[in-house]
Amino acid sequence: MPDTTTVIDNFYVAWNRHDALAVVEPFAASGVYADPLTRVDLSGDHLRDHVQSVLEVIRDLRITVIRTIEDEDAGAAFWSIEGTWDGKLGRLTATETSVRFEGTDVFEFEDGRLRRVRRSFDELAVADALRLQTIVEPYSDGDMTFGHSLRSWVSKEKPGALGMTWLLARDETEKLAIRARAREIIAHFREVPGFIGIVTGFAGLHGFTLTAWENEEALRLATHSGAHSEAMHAFRADDLSGGVFTSVWAPVRLNRMWMRCPLGHPNDATRADGKCEVCGEPLPPAEPYL
Prior knowledge:
Blueprint (H helix, E strand, L loop, with lengths): L3 H14 L2 H5 L2 E8 L9 H14 E13 L3 E16 L2 E19 L2 E9 L1 H7 L10 E2 L2 E2 L1 E7 L7 E8 L3 H18 L5 E9 L2 E8 L2 H8 L2 H12 L5 E7 L8 E3 L5 E3 L22
Parallel strand pairs: 1-5
Antiparallel strand pairs: 2-3, 3-4, 4-5, 6-7, 8-10, 9-11, 9-12, 10-11, 13-14
């Protein structure tokens, strides 16, 4: 029967060989593994699939063991992982991003085999290493609900029509499904002539969208074709979303767009011809209207 030191050493050798079967082999029949990405205990084929996913997403993965402590029944290892993160694991997604993070593994043994492995690392630190935003704020505060948003624009033309929408997700799973469709809709909108820009997001389970268009006809053509038309069908036929409201608005008045020059003078960017009217310094490029 191999001693605990040999089992732990071989565990990391298997990781560094990128051999998912060898990583799982030392576990007892009822042995389980968990880490911040799994959120539940895994065993058998489910564990092997998770290890394989980690090895595929973190390409060139290398675990360096910094220190180990073990006795007959348990052990612990402090390690660092380096590699290139390219894909999605748990809630973390990145593309071709070099990453390094540290963590610990706690081992429990039974008759020379692994009964339980608990891997721990700081998920927020990993997200930061992947250059992902991590925003810590309350879900709500009185009548205010917090969330996230995104903005995408293609044009600095003056808007002639605005689209405003809200929709309700009934749970977090449906919210993810709506967000996935939103990315497809944005990609579709960006290809439609007359599209200016979009601000969209979720506050809790309440989704919202504001779009700007050169004219109402462009809005109509975009929302009745492509990914947006498919989303409308999914609401009517596939039970997507607990409720939707859509509307079209016309701008009543476009006020001045104020931009400051490097010396701090405010200018009407729509009239200043790229230079400060006070000092002649170049102005920053005018922003889109949305």
